Amino acid sequence: MVAEVAAVPVTASIMNKVMEVAAACARHGEGGVRDAQRVIYMYGERVVTPDKESLDACCAVVREGCRQGRASVWDSEVLLARMDWGRKCCTQRGKNMYADPACGTDLFDKGTWYSDLRPDGKTLCILLEALSLQVEFDPSVSMHDAKRLTSSLEKYCGVAFDASVALWYARVAVSLSRARRMSAGDLEAVA
C-alpha cells in the first residue's frame, strides 16, 4: 500500500488540494500562511509546476487567515512570488533553483514576475475579500491598500477592473465605513 501511494505522481491539482486543506485549517484558526509557505516549498518550488489555480489556492489561505485576524493581505505577496518562482524553476530545471530570500517583497510595487504565471480577476477578488476581512482586526487598513492591490494587478498582470472586481473593491470601502462607525460608537460610549 505504501509503495502504491509513493508511486502516485504529485501534480499541481494535488498540491492545490493540499492548499485547500491549509485554507480550511486557517478558517478554523489552525495554521495558515506558514502552512501555505511549506506547501509551496515542498511542492511548488521543487516537484510540480504551479498553475493558475495554485495562485488562487494560496490566496485563499491568506483570505481565511485574514478572516481570523491572523494574517495580512500582504502575506500573499511572498506566496505569489514563490509560486511564480517555482513555475520558473519547474519549467527550466536546474536553472537558479534557489530564490533570493527577499523574493516577492516588492512584487506589487515593481511587478517582478519571473514566469508566464499571472493572477487574474478571480485572484484579485480573493485578495480584495481578504482585505475587507482584515479591516475588522487591523485599524491601519485603508482604501490605499485596495488601490495598491488593484493598480498593481492591472499594471503588471493586465487584470481588468470589471464588475466583480468593482464589487469587492466597494466591499472594502463598506467594511472600512462600518469599522469607523463602530469605532466612533465606542468613543461615544467611553465619553
Q: Could you please describe the fold and organization of this structure?
A:
The N terminus and C terminus are likely disordered. With 191 residues, this protein is mainly α. The chain starts with a helix and ends with a helix. The chain is built from nine helices and no strands. Helix 4 runs parallel beside helix 7 and helix 7 runs antiparallel to helix 8. It is globular, with a radius of gyration of 18 Å.
Strand and helix map with partners:
Elements: H1 2-7, H2 12-27, H3 33-44, H4 52-67, H5 75-91, H6 107-110, H7 121-134, H8 143-157, H9 163-190
Helix pairs in contact: 2-3, 2-4, 3-5, 4-5, 4-7, 7-8, 7-9, 8-9
> How many extended strands?
0
Q: Termini separation (Å)?
A: 68 Å
The chain-level structural class is: mainly alpha
Mean pLDDT: 85
Low-pLDDT windows of residues: 1-7, 186-191
Order of helices and strands: HHHHHHHHH
Radius of gyration: 18 Å
So how many helices? 9
Describe, in short, the structure shown.
By secondary structure, the protein is mainly α.
Keyword list:
about 190 residues; mainly alpha; about 0% strand; disordered N terminus
